[in-house]
Design goal:
This protein is mainly α. The protein has one domain. Helices cover 76% and strands 3% of the residues. A two-stranded antiparallel sheet has the order 1-2. Helix 2 (31-54) packs across helix 12 and helix 4 packs across helix 9 (179-185).
């Protein structure tokens, strides 16, 4: 398969709901393991944000929370592995999810590096938007929140940041929505996987746009619970994303 590109199937706009339903069924195969996986990720995210808050890095809490979208596909590798295990009739274990042998590949490292660079670029853009919105440096969370929600300049910052971040996030989504699980599932290289990912979005724009909106909605909802909602939501979305990949990408090489 390394010599060609995979065929892309066309799906209907109802497909994202089918992926969510399938992901929820897969969640029932090993609920405790999946919840522990999600809880570990939620606790790490909460600890990072708490550390930023206590050091009065108020702006970085927002940047870290929004930037999670860029790194989530790599953090879900264990869930893609679990989806593959369930599909083959096996039982996913926490050990296999935390240590995915097939993820130790150069091409996956390249994809992860690309996502990390995009995240760093997003953080710089966020700083620029913040700097252009105010001359003050808000040193506490309370000051920053008051500025963001109660001033005209804060509203401008939120709108501008949402536009810039939204464009970057959608580009990242197009880059990885198929590529991340595809690199785990088969011996294709990163260029083939990324090309297939962009092709899947182009060929199925409406359903994959809806899928992106649903992912963002659920991740924001989880973040608003202090990241503890990741216990359920992140494993569910990861398993559903594996379902999405398997339905979108044909086994044959085009």
């Amino acid at each position: 398969m390394a010599g060609g590109f995979s065929s892309i199937r066309t799906v209907g706009v109802d497909a994202p709901f089918r992926w969510l339903a399938g992901g929820w069924r897969d969640f029932g195969a090993a609920p405790l393991s999946f919840m522990l996986y999600g809880l570990a990720l939620g606790l790490v995210s909460l600890a990072l944000c708490w550390g930023i808050v206590v050091t009065n890095g108020a702006f970085w809490v927002l940047a870290l929370t929004c930037g999670f979208v860029f790194l989530a596909p790599m953090l879900a590798m264990g869930l893609y592995e679990a989806g593959r295990t369930i599909e083959s009739g096996g039982e996913p274990t926490l050990g296999r999810m935390f240590f995915v042998r097939d993820a130790l590949r150069q091409d996956i490292a390249y994809l992860g590096l690309a996502l990390l660079l995009i995240y760093f670029l997003w953080s710089r853009f966020a700083q620029i938007v913040y700097g252009l919105s105010t001359w003050r440096l808000h040193r506490t969370v309370e000051e920053f929140v008051t500025f963001a929600v109660a001033t005209k300049e804060g509203h401008t910052m939120l709108i501008s940041g949402s536009i810039v971040g939204g464009v970057m996030a959608f580009f990242t989504y197009c880059l990885v929505v198929v590529a991340a699980p595809m690199l785990l599932d088969r011996r294709s290289n990163v260029f083939q996987a990324v090309a297939t990912s962009f092709g899947a979005v182009s060929q199925n724009f409406a359903p994959l746009l809806l899928w992106a909106v649903l992912i963002v909605f659920f991740l924001i909802a989880a973040a608003m619970t202090g990241f503890l909602g990741f216990t359920l939501i992140f494993p569910w979305l990861g398993l559903a994303s594996w379902r999405a990949y398997r339905e979108l990408v044909d086994e044959r090489v085009a």
